[in-house]
Amino acid sequence: MRLLLAALALSAAVPGVWASAAPRSFYADFPGLGRHWVAELPAYSEHLVRDVGAFYVAFAVLFAWAALRPSRALVVPLTAGWAVFSVLHLAFHAANTEGFATVDAVAQTASLVAVLAAAVAALLLTRRAPSG
């Protein structure tokens, strides 16, 4: 469970720090490696990108905290909240792939499914963990 929580912290920290520190670069260049997923979406808004970055950084802090000191009282609401966000995030992106190359649409969807699966797996693992 700690490994899943640490992976979720990293998966939130990367876009969160990038969007917070360099919103224009995040918009133009995310996820990197020559791909440009965010730029395929509606017009750039520094305010919106920074707000989303802050949201991701906040969840990264919570996931890192949970990885270091896991307890049901923290992990259950954290992973449940992240799962709700992930389902809504996935639904939007799955329904809005126009303009994306097939490889990008598949990679984006697969990455969102993986993050959702990690959150659900961590949530399910709390059933075996001691409460705290």
Short descriptors:
132 residues, mainly alpha, two-stranded antiparallel ribbon, 5 helices, 74% helix, globular
Structure description:
Strands 1-2 form a two-stranded antiparallel sheet. The chain has five helices and two strands, in the order H-H-E-E-H-H-H. The protein has one domain (2-125). Helix 1 crosses helix 5 (102-125), helix 2 packs across helix 3 (46-68) and helix 4 packs antiparallel against helix 5 (102-125). It has helices at residues 2-21, 23-29, 46-68, 72-95, 102-125, and strands spanning 31-32, 35-36. The longest helix has 24 residues, at 72-95. The model has no long low-confidence stretch (mean pLDDT 92). With 132 residues, the protein is mostly helical.
Question: How much β-strand is present in the residues?
Answer: under 5%
Tally of extended strands? 2
Beginning-to-end CA distance, first to last residue: 14 Å
Radius of gyration: 15 Å
The tally of domains stands at 1
Helical proportion, percent range: over 70%
- Name the strands of the widest sheet in spatial order: 1-2
- Give the CA-based shape: globular
